[in-house]
Specification:
By secondary structure, the protein is of the alpha/beta class. Helices cover 52% and strands 13% of the residues. A 6-stranded parallel sheet has the order 3-2-1-4-5-6, sandwiched between helices. It has a 4-stranded antiparallel sheet with strand order 7-10-8-9, covered by helices on one side. The protein is elongated and about 115 Å long. The two termini are 54 Å apart.
Length: 343
């Protein structure tokens, strides 16, 4: 972004600046030749500047009986005024266009977010936040990025093609409201500061008590505090990293399988969850017709009281149950749509 800005400035002002500088030098030297030694270089420079800037003060160099001097003044005036006007107009356009473009961009983004529903808000894009956005992007889930640092946002824009973001403080109510928190289904508080994540969690729950908040905690001692502040789940990257390293040692095949599943962009397999509609309560699992989805594998069912692993076709669906299955984003949506449409 910085290189692009520098290129624009050089493109707009380099040649005009060189032309104006040459006009000033030639004008100063020309008036010195025309006026003679009785006028200093400062006098000649002053004469050149008031000529090209159209200030209109009296002539420092006397040109009353000097037709050549007046012709020279006209030439200097036309060249200098043209160069100066070009520079001033471009400076004005550069400032106005930048402000207008930023205002239009911000308004366009806010209008786009107004159409969002059941999306996720990622507060903090650096580090952990980047990988969260990557996962949401890969699984085709709508999201809004919130970060106070514009440079951090711009850094990831080339990576993804569906970035929607708000530049602002995620602890501020107005910022989260612009991000559509009232219509969002989840929020990630993943800034690099535990205290900020705690305030973000509290603010989010105040604005939308039903939203699910997942917070990042660097210090394990802050986990309970964040839950008390409103976070539904708190994740410690250092703790997870330790578990991952242990798993690499004792169960490398399992870790390899999970890595391949996450990195395979063609199949896009993930462990997903889908809520079972209340209309299926008391019916056998076969009524869900899950076997028609060839890229979907049912792993377990989560009930209010327990887990049922590898459930059989004759298993009777319990109230408030959730399917835990391996699927890709497309079939996940088909499963959800099929459960909604089936009677």
């Amino acid at each position: 972004m910085k290189d692009e800005l520098t290129e624009q400035i050089l493109k707009r002002f380099t040649w005009a600046g060189i032309a104006l500088f040459l006009v000033i030098i030639l004008g100063t030297l020309g008036y010195r030749v025309i006026g003679g030694d009785k006028y200093s270089l400062v006098d000649c420079l002053y004469m050149t500047v008031i000529t090209i800037s159209t200030i209109g003060y009296g002539e420092i160099v006397d040109l009353a009986n000097n037709p050549i001097g007046r012709v020279f003044t006209m030439v200097i005036a036309l060249c200098g005024i043209g160069s100066l006007t070009y520079i001033l107009s471009n400076v004005t356009a550069f400032i106005v266009e930048g402000e207008l473009n930023e205002a239009f961009r911000r308004r366009k983004m806010e209008k786009l977010i107004e159409k969002f529903k059941d999306h996720h808000i990622v507060c903090g894009i650096e580090g952990v936040g980047f990988h969260i956005v990557n996962e949401l992007y890969e699984t085709k889930r709508p999201y809004v990025i919130v970060d106070i640092d514009r440079k951090k946002i711009e850094k990831i824009l080339p990576t993804f093609h569906t970035n929607v973001y708000i530049e602002g403080d995620a602890t501020d109510n107005d910022t989260l409201l612009k991000a559509g928190i009232n219509r969002a289904t989840g929020l990630f508080a993943v800034s690099g500061d535990d205290n900020l994540n705690m305030v973000i969690s509290l603010t989010a729950k105040q604005l939308n008590p039903s939203i699910r908040v997942v917070a990042r905690s660097h210090d394990l001692k802050n986990i309970e505090k964040m839950k008390m502040a409103g976070a539904d789940a708190v994740v410690s990257p250092t703790f997870i990293g330790g578990l991952r390293m242990a798993s690499e040692m004792v169960r490398p095949a399992v870790v390899s399988f999970l890595d391949i599943m996450l990195r395979d962009k063609e199949r896009g397999l993930r462990i997903e969850e889908v809520e079972i509609p209340a209309s299926y309560v008391g019916k056998p699992l076969s009524a869900l017709s899950l076997k028609r989805y060839k890229h979907t594998l049912l792993l377990a069912i989560r009930t209010l009281e327990d887990w049922v692993f590898n459930p059989q076709e004759d298993y009777l669906v319990q109230p408030s149950s959730t399917l835990v299955l391996m699927s890709n984003p497309e079939e996940r949506e088909l499963v959800l749509k099929g459960l909604t449409e089936q009677k």
